């Protein structure tokens, strides 16, 4: 029986849990017929998350909100998997990069993007400059780290890569142009490796659910 | 031997690790003679945290930054302690409230306070927005705490340590009694926590702010020094080898039927991949997927995503599946040069059809485009470095330049 993730489709915060589930073999499905602004305001939903935000994961033991917490929970549903690191210091580093991706990457991208989309506060040019400067500083630090590392921690994908990739991806598709990101070539290379490769893998192995949706049929041409 | 925590004193982010250490009996000491703006800009420090921010914990196995990550690490240095919860769901709820305290409490307090301290320009309408967000978040927290003494379970966990440090900071710097009286359970919670012995030992006396700090008349110059200029890496582009058809010296060799046979030989043998794919029954990811990337030759082959353009036609599942089946039959003419996966997705109509194709060469073979009519029913996107954007089919193709000019709309 699959765990139900309450979110619309195409939500990068939902992707974190869906991708983690792919690695751990846990079945997580997007709830059907989710309507943003309606489904997350019902009394039933607010019992799960009094803040009314998505995503929210329904489990047999209770609901969990906050996308990174959901991803961590899903990752730990399977013991001894590579997502969580193999030592205490690796665990510390995974948590470090998860938090960095939230406070340094996601927060700054949001401060730049959302005012331009008309939410998250009014658009104020001087604040936007500040957000861009902060983001460049953060991506610079990330670029330095990725110059000598293929993955954020260790030598394979961990939860830190899943969370970082989802946060970076939002920036890349919505507001970070090539001319902006070319200053951070290792970050560009990292995103390609993580995002594209993972999609290729998911299609080769008939990932189920596929990006949160039911897989009806998979044909192979060979 | 104590672990060293690099931070000034009185830093609420450092408190998190110090309080966790009190609970777990781990020795964590603040570094001596820390000078903000100096000690955290040295090359040695930047090796530990390239961002130059504090706190940073030095351990025998390496440095850790991000205050919540440090607190988690310290909490786990001792097995089976009550800070980390006693079940998977308790663990998840602890993580949930830690993240909530960061994104909903700390972030909003920061957006209200820092402009008034002059670190960021002060914009009144933005401040209103931050205050409204904070009220919403504290309201949700208040609801939870109405029926819970602690955030998770029945004793202090890491969630309480992190939340308390973030709340305490707000309480002493900007949240007056008249503001917090709207959230009585949050008030009760905060005072209970800061009076716990392990908290009091680290934080000391807590006195709630009596007024909101005034806006600085002159915005202080931003504290962070100019961002270090990122060294521009010279793009390394190996010149593409000129493709020259090898001279055929043996007469009996039949003329190549296909332009793809004239490509320079590739280390990837398609049949080997197909065999690996078909024969791997267990541990698919570790064996087949890993094997794929080991053999994949991006010079000799290319990967493509396809997306059916007319998904709204796909109202009957078996008809949709048959359509895909027909497409694959018509692809038979390129079997030697291609591998593909086609997926039909969705629990209710209209069903989506998406696919992945591996083709010999850098382009979709011309003879395939010419002879298989299904090809033009799909949008084809090459999976390559410069086209990361295009892989996400739910997003409109995004022209970065346009958005930068876009006006605000609601």
TrEMBL record, chain A:
Pfam families: GST_C, GST_N
Molecular function via GO: glutathione transferase activity
Record-annotated GST N-terminal domain positions: 1-82
Occurrences of domain GST C-terminal (ranges): 87-222
Family statement: Belongs to the GST superfamily.
Entry function: Probably plays a role in anchoring the complex to other cellular components.
Quaternary data: EF-1 is composed of four subunits: alpha, beta, delta, and gamma.
Protein name: Glutathione transferase
Organism expressing this protein natively: Leersia perrieri
Automatic annotation (TrEMBL), chain B:
Residues in GST N-terminal domain copies: 1-82
Region (Disordered): 213-260
Domain spans labelled EF-1-gamma C-terminal: 256-410
Classification via PANTHER family: ELONGATION FACTOR 1-GAMMA 1-RELATED, ELONGATION FACTOR 1-GAMMA 3
Stretches with biased composition (Basic and acidic residues): 221-245
Organism for this UniProt entry: Leersia perrieri
Record-level Gene Ontology MF annotations: glutathione transferase activity; translation elongation factor activity
CDD domains named in the record: GST_C_EF1Bgamma_like (cd03181), GST_N_EF1Bgamma (cd03044)
Gene3D superfamilies: 1.20.1050.10, Glutaredoxin, Translation elongation factor EF1B, gamma chain, conserved domain
Annotated protein name in UniProt: Glutathione transferase
Alphabetic keyword roster: Elongation factor, Protein biosynthesis
Biological role stated in the UniProt entry: Probably plays a role in anchoring the complex to other cellular components.
Assembly and oligomerization: EF-1 is composed of four subunits: alpha, beta, delta, and gamma.
InterPro entries, alphabetized: EF-1-gamma_plant, EF1B_G_C, EF1B_G_C_sf, Glutathione-S-Trfase_C-like, Glutathione-S-Trfase_C_sf, Glutathione_S-Trfase, Glutathione_S-Trfase_N, GST_C
């Amino acid at each position: 029986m699959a765990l139900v993730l309450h979110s619309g489709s195409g939500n990068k915060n939902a992707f974190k849990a869906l991708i983690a589930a792919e690695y751990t073999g846990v079945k997580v499905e997007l709830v059907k017929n989710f309507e943003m602004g309606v489904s997350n305001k019902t009394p039933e939903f607010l019992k799960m998350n009094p803040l009314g935000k998505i995503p929210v994961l329904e489990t047999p033991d209770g609901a969990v909100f906050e996308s990174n917490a959901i991803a961590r929970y899903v990752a730990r549903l399977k013991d001894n998997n590579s997502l969580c690191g193999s030592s205490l210091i690796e665990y510390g580093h995974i948590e470090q990069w998860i938090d960095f991706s939230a406070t340094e990457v996601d927060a700054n991208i949001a401060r730049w993007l959302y005012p331009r989309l008309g939410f998250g506060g009014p658009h104020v040019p001087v604040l936007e400059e500040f957000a861009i400067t902060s983001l460049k500083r953060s991506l610079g630090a990330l670029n330095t780290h990725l110059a000598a590392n293929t993955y954020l921690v260790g030598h394979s994908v961990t939860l830190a890569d899943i969370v970082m990739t989802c946060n970076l991806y939002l920036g890349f598709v919505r507001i970070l142009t090539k001319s902006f990101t070319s200053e951070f070539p290792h970050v560009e290379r990292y995103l390609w490796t993580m995002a594209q490769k993972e999609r290729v893998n998911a299609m080769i192995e008939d990932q189920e659910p596929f990006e949160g949706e039911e897989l009806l049929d998979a044909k192979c041409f060979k | 031997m104590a672990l060293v925590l690099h931070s000034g004193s009185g830093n609420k982010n450092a408190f998190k690790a110090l309080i966790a250490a009190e609970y777990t009996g781990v020795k964590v000491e603040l570094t001596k003679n820390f000078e903000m703006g100096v000690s955290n800009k040295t090359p040695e420090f930047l090796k530990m945290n390239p961002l130059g921010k504090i706190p940073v914990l030095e351990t025998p196995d390496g440095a850790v930054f991000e205050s919540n990550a440090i607190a988690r690490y310290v909490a786990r240095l001792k097995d089976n302690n009550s800070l980390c919860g006693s079940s998977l769901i308790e663990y998840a709820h602890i993580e949930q409230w830690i993240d909530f305290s960061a994104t909903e409490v700390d972030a909003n307090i920061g957006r209200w306070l820092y402009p008034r301290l002059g670190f960021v320009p002060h914009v009144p309408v933005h401040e209103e927005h931050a205050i409204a967000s904070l009220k919403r978040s504290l309201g949700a927290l208040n609801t939870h705490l109405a029926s819970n003494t602690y955030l998770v379970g029945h004793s202090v966990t890491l969630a309480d340590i992190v939340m308390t440090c973030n709340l305490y900071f707000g309480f002493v710097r900007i949240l007056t009694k008249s503001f917090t009286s709207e959230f009585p359970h949050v008030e009760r919670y905060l005072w209970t926590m800061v009076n716990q012995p392990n908290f009091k030992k680290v934080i000391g006396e807590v006195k709630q702010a009596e007024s909101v700090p005034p806006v600085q008349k002159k915005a202080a110059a931003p504290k962070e020094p100019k961002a270090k200029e990122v060294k521009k890496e010279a793009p390394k582009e190996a010149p593409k080898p000129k493709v020259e058809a090898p001279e055929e010296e043996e007469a009996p060799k039949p003329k190549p039927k296909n332009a793809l046979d004239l490509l320079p030989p590739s280390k990837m043998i398609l049949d080997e991949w197909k065999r690996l794919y078909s024969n791997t029954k267990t541990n698919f990811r570790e064996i087949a997927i890993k094997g794929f990337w080991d053999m994949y030759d991006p010079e000799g082959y290319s990967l493509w995503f396809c997306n059916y353009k007319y998904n709204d036609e796909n109202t009957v599942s078996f008809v949709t599946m048959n359509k895909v089946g027909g497409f694959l039959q018509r692809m038979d003419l390129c079997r030697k040069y291609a591998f593909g996966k086609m997926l039909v997705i969705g629990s209710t109509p209209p069903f989506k059809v998406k696919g992945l194709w591996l083709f010999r060469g850098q382009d979709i073979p011309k003879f395939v485009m010419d002879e298989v009519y299904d090809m033009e029913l799909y949008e084809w996107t090459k999976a390559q470095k410069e086209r990361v954007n295009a892989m996400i089919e739910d997003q409109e193709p995004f022209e970065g330049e346009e958005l930068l000019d876009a006006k605000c709309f609601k």
